Amino acid sequence: MSSSTTKLSSAPDKVPTSTTILRSATLEDVVAICDLEYLLFPNNNFNEVTLAHELQSGAGLVLCDGPQLVGYAMTVQDGELTDLLRLGVAPNYQGRGY
């Protein structure tokens, strides 16, 4: 994990709140996405260079709870076809309907 890793806090057992937002991913999100990649896929993760490249050539969404990035989806489009490359949700946010 990178040195800027933020510990993932436990999420309350409820539906998303007004602090939970889904937005387009930016290059500024790459480190936080990479941290989740290492946590979720320890043997098959994308590194920061690969994630930045995929974001620049495709699209991505991030789920944030306040300032904390807790999920992401990375896609690439080819004509009318969109492929889902990666999907990740922090373990303590899984199964909550986000």
**Largest sheet descriptor:** 4 strands, antiparallel
Main structural class: alpha+beta
Distance between the termini: 24 Å
**DSSP, total strands:** 4
Placed side by side, the strands forming the largest sheet appear as 1-2-3-4
Mean pLDDT: 84
| Unreliable runs | 1-12
Structure annotation, total helices: 2
- State the shape: globular
N-to-C SSE series?
EHHEEE
**Percentage of helical residues?**
10-25%
Radius of gyration: 13 Å
**% residues in beta strands:** 25-35%
Structural account:
The chain is of the alpha+beta class and about 100 residues long. The chain has helices at about 30-40, 50-55; strands at about 20-25, 60-65, 70-80, 80-90. It has a four-stranded antiparallel sheet. The radius of gyration is 13 Å and the shape is globular. It starts with 19 loop residues before the first strand and ends in a 9-residue tail after the last strand.
What's the quick description here?
The chain is of the alpha+beta class and 98 residues long.
Write the layout of secondary structure elements.
Blueprint: E1 20-24, H1 30-40, H2 48-57, E2 59-65, E3 68-78, E4 81-89
Antiparallel strand pairs: 1-2, 2-3, 3-4
List keywords for this structure.
globular, four-stranded antiparallel sheet, 21% helix, 98 residues
